[in-house]
């Protein structure tokens, strides 16, 4: 791929339903695709996103991952912290099966403490879009 010296064509920023893979190997997964509202069980639609994430991760030389769960600001901080941790753990479990042996995968929930975008001051469709971006699970290669 032109202009991406040292970066595989697959990992150079691509998007699969519910998964965005950046050039640095970070994988962002939309929780709207992975989970039902306020739930931590993976939905039937999650497999395509998780398979894309696993393929991108296998292309990376490092084998240590951190799965980070994030929520929007709806609900209590306590509930969001718990939910984000449960979702990160569900993705960790799925990736463990998809990636196979030789990987070290940790899971951590951040609740609403690390938003991708600000929700305050937003209304209507802009608020919905901000909340959707903040509901995510990110996989970081270390």
From TrEMBL:
UniProt xrefs under InterPro entries: Bact_OuterMem_StrucFunc, OMP_bac, OmpA-like, OmpA-like_sf
**A single GO cellular-component term on record:** cell outer membrane
What the entry lists under SUPFAM superfamilies is as follows: OmpA-like
Keywords assigned by UniProt, alphabetized: Cell outer membrane, Membrane
Which intervals hold domain OmpA-like?
22-142
User: Compositional bias of type Polar residues: which residue ranges?
Assistant: 73-85
Protein location: Cell outer membrane
Ranges where the record places region Disordered: 59-87, 114-142
Q: Which CDD domains match?
A: OmpA_C-like (cd07185)
Name of the featured protein: OmpA-like domain-containing protein
The species this protein belongs to is Luteipulveratus halotolerans
């Amino acid at each position: 791929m032109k202009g991406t010296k040292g970066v595989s064509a697959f990992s150079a920023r691509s998007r699969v339903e519910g998964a965005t893979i950046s050039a640095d190997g970070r994988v962002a997964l939309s929780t709207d695709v992975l989970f039902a509202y306020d739930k931590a069980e993976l939905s039937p639609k999650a497999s395509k996103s998780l398979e894309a994430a696993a393929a991108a991760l296998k292309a990376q030389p490092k084998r240590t991952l951190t799965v980070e769960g994030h929520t929007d600001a709806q609900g209590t901080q306590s509930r969001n912290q718990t939910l984000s941790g449960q979702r990160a753990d569900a993705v960790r479990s799925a990736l463990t099966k998809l990636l196979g042996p030789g990987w070290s995968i940790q899971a951590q929930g951040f609740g609403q403490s690390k938003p991708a975008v600000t929700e305050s001051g937003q209304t209507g469709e802009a608020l919905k879009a901000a909340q959707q971006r903040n509901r995510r699970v990110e996989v970081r290669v270390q």
